[in-house]
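tool_log.txt
---
The assistant was asked to compare two proteins side by side. It first ran the structure predictor on the initial sequence, then on the second. Raw inputs and outputs are pasted verbatim so the downstream comparison step can read them without reformatting.
(1)
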Amino acid sequence: MSGVRAKDRDSRAMEKKYRVVGNTGNWAVAEDDAKPAGNYATREGALEAIYLAASNDIKSGHGVTIRIDPPPPDAPATGGRP
């Protein structure tokens, strides 16, 4: 055993990870280690797409992590086109 308790291993296995990736005007969602999918005009739009799936994961007893990196310095905060 690597020093990790069985309960800790189980909780990590029950965690869903969502990531918003892309650039100005072209955002997608990656679930766990899958290839990003979708085409959203803003980071907010991509987050809205994650919401339902994450809500269902929570109801199923999974932990949820959502990562949204900041937009480039010269882009609007929403990640959409200026």
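(2)
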Amino acid sequence: MRVIHFTQPAADPLKSFDSTGASFLPLADGEGDTNISCLHLEMDGKVESPSLSHAAALLIAHGRVTIEQSPGPRIHFSGGKGALFEQNEPYTLKSETGAIILIVEAQQLTAHTRRLNATKDRGRQLAQ
């Protein structure tokens, strides 16, 4: 076992993607172009148009994040929620409160349909 620290002091300031108040930490590399990383957003932090070379799953581990697409929706996320983006699908991340985001990148990612818009499943036991 290898222990991975993804606390903010372990991360490096993110200077690309017109970022402010953001720090980034690569966590693990998989086969091919599969990567897992962590993004820390400080209060009022933002990252505009992150890398579009991979599909990406953004998993909000802590805090609140607004993900915007232009043109497109502006959606507010809190811990325990996330979003899946296809390769070349642009988005912007912003946080008024600060956030910790785990990022999984690969050539292609497909969400399990069981977890898409899971809020409608609240209060109902899911089949195993």
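---
observation on (2): The longest strand covers residues 35-48. Strands lie at 12-13, 20-29, 35-48, 55-68, 74-78, 82-85, 92-95, 99-106.
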